Amino acid sequence: MSELDQYYEVVLELVKRGGKLIRENITRQKTISVKSCDVDLVTETDQMVEKLLMDGISAKFPDHKFIGEETSSESNKRVELTDAPTWIIDPVDGTMNFVHSMPHTCISIGCYVNKVCEIGIVYNPVIEQFFTARRGLGAYLNGAPIRVSGETKLNKSLMMMETGTSRDPEKMKVVMDNIQTLTPLIHGSRALGSCALNMCMVAMGAADVMWEFGIHIWDVAAADLIVREAGGVCIDPAGNDFDPLSRRVLVASSMELAQQLAKHLTQYYPDRD
User: Fold this and answer.
1) So what's the pLDDT on residue 88?
2) Band of the pLDDT at 32, cuts 50, 70, 90?
3) What gap in Å lies between CA 155 and CA 257, rounded to an integer?
4) Residue 225 pLDDT > 60, yes or no?
5) Residue-wise pLDDT tens digits, 78-103
6) Which one, of 197, 121, 110, lies nearest residue 160 by Cα?
7) How many CB atoms lie within 10 A of CB 273?
8) By the 8 A CB rule, do 262 and 238 touch?
9) To which H or E segment does residue 145 belong?
């Protein structure tokens, strides 16, 4: 068994345990705290799941590093991605959904080695959607292979998008302008309230294109690999190469479709992670 095989086997079991916590707590009364603004929330379950994952991985691989949403938010430091094996964790992506007991919420965890994502897992334990990917080995949903739709035309595309947790007036204006511009050009738009799940909808062919400004590396690290291993593309919303620390993402079922959407987007550049 290779080192990456060992990493994968360990994290699979930990994610299942973390998913059990989310499933048990989603309909219970929650202790809620506010982070950067009134709609940027954290619950005790976010913290419990992140601790479970970090402690479990550290017990097996003590030299591994972590970039976790809750620990990063607490330290308020710039994210540092090194060549060391690094686990990038969003313990509850879709915390707002979780607070309201809406079932679109997930664990997102990716493992980077030498700054390349090798493992990606996105798990919605409420409706049992378990997305997995290994670099070069394909993408799967509940153990079955998945592929993007292959759609190339914007006017036939179902688009995933979000307003996000920031209420910065400049960002909100850009988002609303883009919705107004794109709505006449596409088949329809959807928002699940989770960046990772929105990206996975493209990976499984349930949607064709997705974009968002203001997300973080822990929102996109795992799903980026899942999309690419499903045959999709992940780029910067301006049409350039994807930078996981840029807090900007555009994924699509084909490069042709990605570039079509990028041409219509008004751009917004948040501070980097």
Assistant:
1) 98
2) confident
3) 10
4) yes
5) 888 999 999 999 999 999 999 999 99
6) 197
7) 18
8) yes
9) strand 144-145
Listed as own residue / partner, the contacts of 98-101 with beta carbons closer than 8 Å and 24 or more positions apart are: 98/22, 98/26, 98/30, 98/43, 98/45, 99/30, 99/32, 99/41, 99/43, 101/26, 101/27
Flag the least confident range among 43-47, 89-93, 117-121, 126-130.
43-47
How far is 73 from 80, CA to CA, in rounded Å?
Answer: 13
Per the DSSP assignment, residues forming a β-bridge with 215 are none
Counted residue by residue, the chain has a size of 273
- Edge-to-edge strand list for the sheet holding 116-124: 65-68, 86-93, 106-113, 116-124, 129-134, 139-141, 144-145
For residue 145, give both structure tokens: 């292979």
Q: What are the beta bridge partners of residue 42?
A: 33
Q: 172 falls in which pLDDT band (50, 70, 90)?
A: very high
Percentage of the chain exceeding pLDDT 90: 88
Q: State the DSSP string of 22-41.
A: HHHHTTS---EEESSSTT-E
* 218 neighbors 72 (Cβ within 8 angstroms): yes
